[in-house]
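Q: My collaborator sent me two sequences in one message, no labels, and asked for predicted structures for both. Can we handle them in order? The first one she listed is below.
A: Yes, handling them in the order given. First sequence, followed by its structure tokens:
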Amino acid sequence: MDKASTSRTNKSGDTGVCDHPPATPTGPGDSDSGTPGHQFEQPKEASDKQGGLGSQDDPDPREDSSPAAKRRKRNTKAKKNKKRKVDEVEVQKMKLLVSSLSEEQLNRYEMYGRSAFRREAVKRVIQRASGTTVSQKVVIAMSGLAKVFVGEVVEEALDVCQRWRETPPLQPKHLREAVRRLSSKGQIPVTKPKKVSFF
């Protein structure tokens, strides 16, 4: 048995078989064999495992130090930093916009932010139109789209009111004209399909 173990040993006293990662050079100096060269030091991960210092509950440190894990961690940090910067820029833009609004515009902006369609009513309309049950996410999305649509109609109606040299509040004639203009621009979907004759 001693002959087998000594036959695997090279001149420096190291065996050819290694059950841990290769050692890393730390700098010039003498090795164990007395010849000048680099001193080699065991990586901490391997020495901890050999000495029994690591526990089984601890995650494998080599997984965390892999290049892919480092890259993922770096990308996540970069995305978070970028998102923070974008959010800060958006907040500054909104502050500038709100500070430049007149009193009437600010009141209208606040009312628009507070207004919302009741989700139960939106769900009822969707289910009546489609004939199927819909999830809560669909209801939220449709109520948001409806709010944007109503905002566009009201904005166009205010433009109509101003062009006709009338003062708010809006009247049904302003809303009808706004819907007519938006549909002529193609911003309102067609509710009735056009009949196409092939003759």
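Q: And the one she listed second?
A: Here it is, processed independently of the first:
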Amino acid sequence: MLTWLQQWFLSQCDEEWEHEYGIKICTLDNPGWSIKIDLAYTELEDVRISIPTIEESAGDWYSIVIVDGVFSSLCSPNKLDFVISDFKALVELGEARYLADRPQARMIPFAEGYSISKGLPKPVREYLYKIIDEEQISSANMHEKGASLANAIRPILEKLINNSDLDMQSLIMLVYRYGWNYIHAKHAS
């Protein structure tokens, strides 16, 4: 499995990714392993999955959490190969089949654990950009169409509020900033 992981790492290297992202494997003092694999700018960057600690027997356990663009696992000393194999399955199967094959796994809703410092979650950004494109919102008509844009995205923002300590005004301001940036970037290109 280590050879496969090396190849996956090399396939991500593009003279930029490897300077900011990578793979960290460390030992734990209980004993065990900790593995973190950065997924930023890969096909898996938006996957959010949790597999709570599975204890197959005393001293034979693992857990996996994939959130915020990082595959993280803690495992017993004999499970490192298994965890890397599980990551390989995610890469090769994709999120839907990976989840289907693992009844103990659950998808983490994008709003769970949301923090405004992380910016808008990708599904919200994509929905915002879709509305802007469909409604042909531009800097010239943003003042006229801004209210309808806010109303269209409000139900998604309410989900974020229900799962965080944010208020609607803070989220609306964040959406407004992302919307303007998107409109200006489209106009510039």
